Amino acid sequence: MTGTPPSDFAKRLDKTADDTEALLGRLLSDDILHDEIARPKRLMDAMRYSSLNGGKRLRPFLVVESAAVFGVPRESALLVGAALECIHCYSLIHDDLPAMDNSDLRRGRPTLHKQTDDATAILAGDGLLTLAFDIITRDEVHRDANVRLLLTRALARCAGIGGMVGGQILDLAGEGRFGGNEPIDVARIQQMKTGALLRYGCIAGAILGQASKAEYQALDDYGRALGEAFQIADDLLDVEGDAAALGKPAGADAALGKTTFVTQLGIEGAKQRVRDLLARADSAVSIFGDRAAVLQAAARFVAERKN
């Protein structure tokens, strides 16, 4: 496996997190844009509460680093990453609601509906979702309108019916929320609920870079492997982690009766699956040579994370 020094990787991850934080701060300012009538203070405060000062910004990092393989300007990749992060943050707000996972803690702080109320949380999530599509269609993202169209369509599909939202309802069905005894396909749920947005972070770089079919496929394969590794690591952390490190309650999956990779494969089986996925991710991007070193390090980071 091509090596990237851990310190260099950490610096790059932190730099992207800082740049994304600053960009989101500007995008979520109180300044009214053309065609907007007002930016209500309660709504903006709630959107900022759930989007700023938190998270590793892994998804924007994947956009930036996959785009860097093709020499895409960093400013363009950061805008796409910010749009993706808005989708991610909206999904966390809605996931935490009483009707969904009913969580009290997120990133070491009260969840938004606990800090405010359910209605404000729902609307803050809606606001972030729609802002994402405002951002992704801006001229600054790419001079070619067709590239912006491809980015927008891919984001909608990864975030929507056949992606994250569809995966969420399958996950709830797996908890027995809707009655019946539907078979639970953990891999399919993961690919949709968690993996789809992580995969988008990888293919967005290929779209921005106007990659060849083979290059796009390499990043697509890498993104699918990384997404599954991320979810398995998350399932392992829910069993082996602690709330202080996670910033949210441990054991939540078991409390909700969820079927996970760990319940299906066992702890050792899940860890072996992660190792197999790391090898797959590494192989997928090997066509880029040394340019893939940071992406390979990102896959290791995902698999070995503690929170």
Number of helices: 14
Strand order in the sheet with the most strands? 1-2
Largest sheet: 2 strands, antiparallel
Distance between the termini: 24 Å
Uncertain regions: pLDDT < 50 for 5+ in a row? none
Helical residue percent band: 55-70%
What is the CA-atom radius of gyration, in angstroms?
19 Å
Word description of this protein:
The protein is mainly alpha-helical and 307 residues long. It has 14 helices and two strands; from the N terminus they run H-H-H-H-E-E-H-H-H-H-H-H-H-H-H-H. The protein has a two-stranded antiparallel ribbon. Strand 1 and strand 2 form a beta hairpin. The protein starts with 5 loop residues before the first helix and ends with a helix.
Brief description of this entry?
The chain is an all-alpha fold. The protein is 69% helix and 1% strand.
